[in-house]
Amino acid sequence: MFVIFGTGLRRCTNRFTASGVVGQLPHKAERSACRQRSARTLARLEQRRRENVPGDVYVTSGCIDCDTCRWMAPSIFDRVGSQSAVVHQPETDAERVRTLQAAAACPVGTIRTESPPPAGLSKQAREAFPELIATSGDERSGTRVYHLGYHSAKSFGATSYLVLPDGDRWKDAAFMTDSPRYFRPLADQIEQLLKREGRQLRYIFLTHVDDVADHEKWAERFQVRRIMHADDIDDADERSTLASIEIPLTGSGPWLLTPESVTKWPAGAASPAPDRHGVKIIHVPGHTRGCIAAIVDNYVAFTGDHIAYSETRNAVTGFPQVCWFDWSLVIESTAKLAEEAFVWIMPGHGRRYHYASVEAMRQGLTESIALMDSDLYWAMVPYRARGRVRSS
C-alpha cells in the first residue's frame, strides 16, 4: 500500500457531499469536531473499500465523502454507498496523471495504490497545480481562474482558487479565494506562475468561516492581507485564528475590490458594473451570517458554500442541511446574486457550473430560488436555520 501524497488526517462528523449532508451536530461543536484528529479514522484508513473495482488504485474506508475526486476524475471515481470508490482503473497515462492529481487534492489522503506510481507521472501530477480551469480569453489573457488543488481537511475539502482578473487595474495583481492546505511546493508553484505573469498576490478572499483552512500560513508566505466579513469573525468558535484578519468587512455592502483597497461600492453606480472589468464583493448571508461572494469582471462568481451545482438535483442550489444561520436569507441572497452578471459559479463545496450566458444564469437562478423555497427543501432545513418566517 502506498500513500501517494502526504496529508494531515482529520475527519469531520458531518459529511458535506454533492447530494447533501449526513448527520448533524450543533454549529460550533461541528466546527470543533472538524478540527480534531480521529484515531478511529487513522485505523480505518488502512482498509481498502470492497466497493473498489479490482486493480492498483483504490479508496480506503477513511474517505470523508467530500466529492473532490469524483468531480476531478469522474471516469475513475464515483460515489458507491456513502463514500467514493474506484469504478474504473486508469489505463492511459493521462488517466493515471488525473488520478494522481485527485490523490494530491484529497484532503485526507485516502486514495492509495498497491504499487508506487511512476516517478515521472507523480511529478507531473504534483506540478499540475495551479491548474487553469476557466478563462474569458486564453492561457495568457482575459480573466483566469486556477484550481489550487491540495484541499484541506480543516475545511472538509473545500475548493480554493487563484484569480487573475482582467483589465489594466489588475494587470500586475491577483488574489486567492479561500485557502488550500499549506504545501510549500504548491506555494512555490504559485509564486512561479505569478512571476511569469508579472503579478503579485494582493489578497486572500475568505468567503466564510468554515473554509479558511491554513489562511495564516498563506498570508505569512505571501505577505498579503485577508478579507472576511466581520460577522463570521465574531461568530467563530474559541479556537478561531481569525482575530488577525486585516480587512474585516462590516455592513451589507456591496464593496469594490481593487489591488490597492476595499471600498464601498460607489453610490449610484450601476450594478452589475457596466464596463465588465472589476471585482465586486457581495454580502450573501444565510449559510453563515457573514458569507460573502466575489464577482470578477462580470464573468465568474466565487460563492463559497452559499450555492453550487448539485449533481443529485441537476441544479445550482443551496444546501439546506448545512445551513447554519438562516435559510430564508440563503434564498434572498440568491435573488441578490441573480441581479448581477456572471456565467461561472465557482463554489467552495459542491461543483462549479457554467451558464451559456448571463441571461441563462438569471433564468437558472430564478428556477433555483423556486426549488429552494419548495416544501422539499424546507423539510430539510434544521430547526436552528428556521429563524425567519418562510415566504408564501
TrEMBL record:
Gene3D superfamilies assigned to the protein according to its UniProt record, in alphabetical order: 3.30.70.20, Ribonuclease Z/Hydroxyacylglutathione hydrolase-like
InterPro entries per record: Metallo-B-lactamas, RibonucZ/Hydroxyglut_hydro
Annotated Pfam families: Fer4_13, Lactamase_B
Boundaries of every Metallo-beta-lactamase domain copy: 157-349
Domain of life, source organism: Eukaryota
PANTHER family (alphabetical): METALLO-BETA-LACTAMASE FAMILY PROTEIN, METALLO-BETA-LACTAMASE-RELATED
Name of this chain's protein: Metallo-beta-lactamase domain-containing protein
